[in-house]
Amino acid sequence: MENRFYTDFDTDWIGRGQSKNVKGRTPFEQDRDRIIYSPAFRRLQNKTQVFLSGEFDFYRTRLTHSMEVSQIGRSIVNHLNRTSPQLSDGFHIDQDLVESICLAHDIGHPSFGHAGEQVLNELMFAEGGFEGNAQNLRILVDLFYRDKSQWSGMNPTRAFLDGMLKYKTLFSHSQEKKNHFIYDFQKDILDFVIPQPDFLKGLTTEHELNSFKSLECRIMDWADDIAYSIHDIDDGIRAGFITMKKIRNWLDTHEKEYAENEITFLESLCESIVDDSFSATLARLIGLFIHSTTLITRNTALGEKTNRYKFDILVEGESRRLCEMLKSLAIGLVFHTPQVHQLEYKGGRILRKLFSVMEEEYMKDGTHPFRLLPAHYHEAMATSSHLQKKRMLCDYLSGMTDGFVVRTYKRLFDPDFGSIIDLI
To answer: HD domain spans which residues (predicted)?
Structure first.
């Protein structure tokens, strides 16, 4: 049955990248399938979520996190399609669209988590910055496929691209320029997604512009919040960062900030840590958060053009507050610990050193006696401008996995690293 929720406006392709043929699949199915089979998606298996990938094999990586966000996103869509009176079999939110957005939401994030993102933004600041979500778009539209030393995009649909646009502020218009922006040269993507300036009329502040998101982007955002608020706690407990004693000490400091039911949950979490049932306790929250989501209507200028801006989600306040409390707990007991900060510092220092060496070798005029980059990058550098070269170096480093970054660093600077086995 045809789904009338989406129109040709939603399924239109940006026209940059490999062509698409229907072949029995919807445009949104094609977007999802291309993500799953891409090298950029596979690299997420060796990129940091909380703890450095490979440290222990049961911790979540960016890949397993993205898969969990995708499953939660699909479940939210199922729940809304079944329970919302505004929706029906012929007028419903597309699961494949939401799944592809969730799978790809971290595809451009670099090694070493947010520390890597901050370092690359500092290194690229004079050339327009670096931001993980902006890099998502760059991969999808410009870097998805490679033919020798030429790159091209995956030709994504408008609805898919819009779902990936968590932020709509250009780097040059961003006040702090630390994050929550897209690159200035991506304005054409923004113009494709929102083709008429009048659709953004009235959005006068950076916060208002970045908060103007499609329905599917809202669902992905909430699924992401659910996944990392719960699963970062789970990983933190398994790693020994979060214990009953530490939770109660943290609660002593923050008790006045939270309602009775939130404090009760933390007490039950402490008890479940003692009897080793914390995983089930946390897993039950996923269903609670999903079923706390309802579909509402909203009035936006773009709502006249697409149902993606005619509808929004509303999350019941108690669930939202409980989710925020878990995120605060994870930040306090895991992310702000010396152990994690030391690893982030080390990762950032490694990226800085690699960037410095590559920049020294490839940004100067003349020949490049040392081939430090793969052949296709080396060849592309020869015909690129100064600005293009630096952005290309950033693309290369941000695409490297944690393990590949460390091996490259050792190969360049560790005197004892360099046997034939080490070179593989």
So the answer is: 62-229
Beta carbons of 110 and 139 less than 8 angstroms apart: no
**Domains (ranges, CATH) in the chain?**
8-214 (1.10.3210.10), 216-338 (no CATH), 343-413 (no CATH)
Q: Is the pLDDT of residue 423 over 70?
A: no
3-state secondary structure 222-262: HHHHHHHHHHHHHHHHHCCCCCHHHHHHHHHHHHHHCCHHH
- pLDDT tops 70 at residue 122: yes
Distance (Å, rounded) from C-alpha 92 to C-alpha 73? Answer: 14
pTM over cut 0.90: yes
